[in-house]
């Protein structure tokens, strides 16, 4: 999700005023006192498609944006954690289930249109069920469950979630585009694009 933030006026490292400098043909804020360069605002999120007995795990969001919408579990990556740890944590927090990532199946890349919005990158994993009992995190999830494809058709589900579910069922390999969603399917291991 992109949201508005104020640009830095002072260097976050040494507190000196930032100046505008052309770096790599882009006007960027930088510090003339230390090595800091503001490369932009970024947001990294993860989601996981988890199948069990031919049904996919979905959660109903309990807050905005998208309150009431059904989607795959996921959330933001913490600064200090690898993406595969983030998706395991998010699924456990939101659903009570343990899952391991098998592959990256899709990503959504939304560059910002101005310096106040964040560049948003969302990575979707195909997950392997490892155990646990369904129990929703009330702050984030109002309902959850495993649903067949037919049941999914009756739910309020964003296009991104539907595409991720669809691509998780295919055997094609490679990268294809669908708007701002890039689909990667049936990858044999992390980060391997065959």
Automatic annotation (TrEMBL):
<keyword id="KW-0378">Hydrolase</keyword>
<dbReference type="InterPro" id="IPR020084">
    <property type="entry name" value="NUDIX_hydrolase_CS"/>
</dbReference>
<dbReference type="InterPro" id="IPR000086">
    <property type="entry name" value="NUDIX_hydrolase_dom"/>
</dbReference>
<dbReference type="InterPro" id="IPR020476">
    <property type="entry name" value="Nudix_hydrolase"/>
</dbReference>
<feature type="domain" description="Nudix hydrolase">
    <location>
        <begin position="41"/>
        <end position="169"/>
    </location>
</feature>
<dbReference type="Pfam" id="PF00293">
    <property type="entry name" value="NUDIX"/>
</dbReference>
<dbReference type="GO" id="GO:0016787">
    <property type="term" value="F:hydrolase activity"/>
</dbReference>
<protein>
    <submittedName>
        <fullName>ADP-ribose pyrophosphatase</fullName>
    </submittedName>
</protein>
<dbReference type="InterPro" id="IPR015797">
    <property type="entry name" value="NUDIX_hydrolase-like_dom_sf"/>
</dbReference>
<comment type="similarity">
    <text>Belongs to the Nudix hydrolase family.</text>
</comment>
